[in-house]
Automatic annotation (TrEMBL):
Cell location: Endomembrane system; Endoplasmic reticulum membrane
MF GO annotations: 3-oxo-5-alpha-steroid 4-dehydrogenase activity; polyprenal reductase activity; polyprenol reductase activity
The EC number(s) this enzyme carries: 1.3.1.94
Topology relative to the membrane: Multi-pass membrane protein
Organism name: Papilio machaon (Old World swallowtail butterfly)
Official protein name in the record: Polyprenal reductase
Length: 208
């Protein structure tokens, strides 16, 4: 199935890079699952479009296939004894990539805490409103959508670890999607709140 999907007979990355990328992706998915069920406050009237739901499933499926399907022993027929399990590039970049990913993951988590607290009572923690308010603190002081900025950072790290044409397509999808939605959110904030901070960018500080 992987050969059919990717049409690839030779590995595009070493085994270590694939393992690191999949481990980081697992951390991200586990955290997002926790936030969805235990942290975030969704409006009762809010609904997800079916197409968005299906695209989300397809996205994570593609990420896993792109990482696993281009790793040694998963594409084509290879001699196990001749496989290079790691390389100098991965050894050099692994620690900076892991630290950057975990930082962006943490900041994204803190952003979602700020969003949730806008609808909760500060003392009791109970949900008291479903209204939208201006978020403040941490990366919100620089951009309107720090969670989307962090998402781009996360996938930049994954693309550095899995620098293949297939994963580059996934990266472009994330980049375009997050930038577009961030700009739309930024414009909505400015139209909805007259006192919205003028110094905030949409997604990249001092750039966009």
């Amino acid at each position: 199935m992987l050969r059919i999907l990717l049409e690839q007979d030779e590995p595009g990355v070493c085994a270590t890079a694939a393992v690191i990328a999949l481990s980081l992706l697992s951390v991200q998915c586990a955290r997002r699952c926790y936030e969805t069920y235990c942290l975030q406050v969704f409006a009762k009237s809010s609904k997800m479009n079916l197409s968005h739901y299906l695209v989300g499933i397809g996205h994570y499926f593609a990420c896993i296939v792109a990482a696993v399907g281009q790793a040694p022993l998963f594409c084509g027929r290879q001699n196990r004894e001749k496989i290079i399990w790691t390389d100098s590039r991965t050894i050099l970049l692994s620690v900076p990539c892991i630290l950057t990913f975990l930082w962006a993951c943490y900041e994204q988590y803190q952003t979602n805490i700020i969003f949730a607290n806008l609808r909760r009572d500060k003392k009791t923690g109970k949900v008291v409103t479903e209204d939208h308010k201006i978020p403040n603190g941490r990366l919100f002081e620089r951009v309107s959508s720090p969670h989307r900025m962090c998402e781009i950072i996360l996938y930049t790290v994954l693309f550095i670890l899995i620098p293949t044409k297939t994963f580059f397509c996934i990266y472009l999808w994330v980049l375009s999607n997050q930038i577009q939605t961030a700009i739309q959110a930024h414009e909505w904030y400015k139209k909805s709140f007259k006192d919205y901070p003028v110094n905030r960018a949409a997604i990249f500080p001092a750039l966009l």
